Amino acid sequence: MAAPQNLSSLNCEVRIIEAKNLEFKSKGKVFVRCYLFTGNNQKIRLNSREIPSTSHPYWNESSSLECSTANSNCMDQLKQQRVVFEIRWRNNSPMLGRIGGSKLLSRAEVSWKEVLESSELAIQRWVTTTATSSCHVLEGLKSPALHVGMKVVVPRMAEMVNNRRNDALKRWNDCGCRHGNCCHNGDDELFALVAAIEAL
């Protein structure tokens, strides 16, 4: 399904499911940090919860953000952006009374263009990450991989479709005709919008 055009607002969902092929030399916590890039070279940082470091950590967490623009099409801007996923490790033993910083183990990028060009405006897949530190990941293993989901939802489109459907039904009822010729005004577009939303 083609993505709707000329939208000024939509919701973007990022889901962190699980990781695999991780082995650690010492105990600690593992988490995923996401960077969502905006059109003005800024980024939003999101962290998953920290869980004990194992070879197959499981989070199944999702975050949803509204993406909006006042000047241009939100879809066009989003197509140029990406999400960076980082698998990070933190030593959970306090150093001088405080928890130390995290270490970057591996990272991967996924473009929103892939999501917008998918039939469901959503993807879910394993992403192979590139190891950036051998400090806490044992050598000789397969590359760490991260199971992620990304989705785009157009909330205001559904509301617009319902309003237009109600207006069309009102015109039909007010007219009372059985052939529908006098009530045809724009209904083809209405049905196209309904089909687009129901396909989501």
TrEMBL record:
Pfam families in the record: C2
PROSITE patterns: C2
Start and end residues of each C2 domain: 1-127
Record-linked CDD domains: C2
This protein's name: C2 domain-containing protein
Organism, scientific name: Protea cynaroides
